[in-house]
Amino acid sequence: MAPKREISIKDVKVDDSFWNGRIGNAVEKAVPYQWRVLNDQEPGAVPSHAVMNFKICAGLAEGKFGGFRFQDSDLAKWIEAAAYSLLYKDSPEIRAALEEAVSVIEKAQQPDGYLDTYFILEKPEERWRDIAHGHELYCAGHMLEAAVALFQVTGSSRLLQVMEKTVNLIRQVFGEGEGQISSYPGHEEIELALMKAYRATGQEAYKELALYFIENRGAKPGFLEEPGFQNASKNRWFQASYHQAHARIREQETAEGHAVRAMYFFTGAADAALETGDPTLKAALEKLWENVTRRRMYVTGGVGSQGEGECFTIDYDLPNDTCYTETCAAIGLAMWALRMLRLEPKEEYAAIMERALYNNVLSGISQDGEHYFYVNPLLVKPEVARFRRDHQDVEPDRVKWFGCACCPPNITRTLCGLGGYIYTRKGDAIYQHLYIGNTGEFETEQGKARLRCVSSMPWEGKAEIAYSGPDGVEVYLRVPGYGENFRITKAGAPVSFTLSQGYARLCPQDGDAYTLSFGMKAQYLQANPQVLEDCGKACVQRGPLVYCAEEADNGPLLNSFTADLSQPPVLETSPLFGGVTVVKAAGSQIDWEKWPANALYAPAPAPTRPASLTLVPYFLWNNRGAGEMLVWMNAR
User: Fold this and answer.
1) Which of 339, 442, 500, 501 is most buried (CB neighbours < 10 A)?
2) What residues act catalytically?
3) What's this model's pTM, rounded to 2 decimal places?
């Protein structure tokens, strides 16, 4: 069967004033830097052991397994990122590193197709016996994604052939036949990887295995009788819901458990719903989407409120200083949103994808591309974060690497693969969801079509879009929910359009060039009053960007400021970070010089003085050293 046709990662190349530097940093610095880290050659970074584990398995080195049992996935995500980086710079050094990585992986693979360095080196007799926590399927999923990326970008099928053997083995091991294991992954990931492989190759076996895992998740007993699960489940945070195995997906009412696992599972399920056309699966995903984005998501697009279990808690429980909001979870949310857009193009899906990418994902990497956040809080007081046990997951500064390093290569593969988030297709209709400068080429039934976008986002609501190609291709341009007075012109004249689920429909002809524009005012947002920590507070958003206050601009005791909501935030252009739009919030601040000496408490009202806060985009915080930071301000 011919491969499923979709918009390939090679079809869209980002060329954007905002994103070029960040992608360039990933390509020029982060990808080579991470290769050194994975080879334990970067001073000051926590040893990875990832490449060494494969070398030991391959007989190329001696030693013992190092790192977490899922360490293989770090190398897999790096391979995916490095493959995508070749779209922007065809580096001989990176090609050589990829060649080395694939060669080592080929040699490490067992004769029957098994590929997992932890179990090969540490517990060969326990293969497939700890499905709940062993991460064998999780690592296989990431390596399969890497294989697909390498195949799509370079045409090399060597790693794909390795993973085809691994997947064939998994198909023999899992199922309902005699001697097979009737279960599903403890940590979801392979489902979405299998769907990627199916679309890239057209091989039905990939889709069949993905559907088996998706449809059977929540079936009993699955892995619920394993000793490893039984031991972990004694902790209330690590029961079946931690794995999204408390019910089958159509019976799940709320997003539960480990946030990254949930996002990856819902992403794979959305892929399955698109391929099968199953309306009941689509409806289940819509219900879960509503729960996540309207009751359990931070304004930055972060998900996962609690460090213990890295998990969702309950509706409206969104603490700012102890939240987990893992970078990988925001990446997972963006991935899920993209799949929901493929199912049904709706502006709200694109808005959430954009929110996550511009805020919680970008905040996970420093401006230099070599320091990372695992956790992305919305309120930080460094001395508190360093001392209190309930802040143990919050880093006041980004770090060079993590022992559990899922986030760094995940960010890099997202930045290098950003072109994959801009468009989706339905037949000969092309939907543009993000106004990121790019050139996209699309194979349609009418012939090859091309879109070129030059964008001023996120600092200004303006984009120039040129179309070349045959007649009969429809182009749908997103009308952002935050955009005011959205208009489209051609040669200076207004263009009329019909609106469909937040998209402006155009029927362009070859050579048509459009200018779209919309206002983006800085505005105060307030949270649902059921969000305890944000009641009586406000934050600032402009376009897709959420803003925060930092001690570097405003001094300490940021929480003593109260914003005056009757005075709109004021925009200013700042030379910070090479030139950004900052926001000034007017209000009042407690006058600490007039506070009674040595008084822990004093009669109200506290003495105040007029004041203002300078706010910078949230994704830029902590690029000037550790200091206080807050997103939600007191408000009146």
Assistant:
1) 339
2) 310, 406
3) 0.97
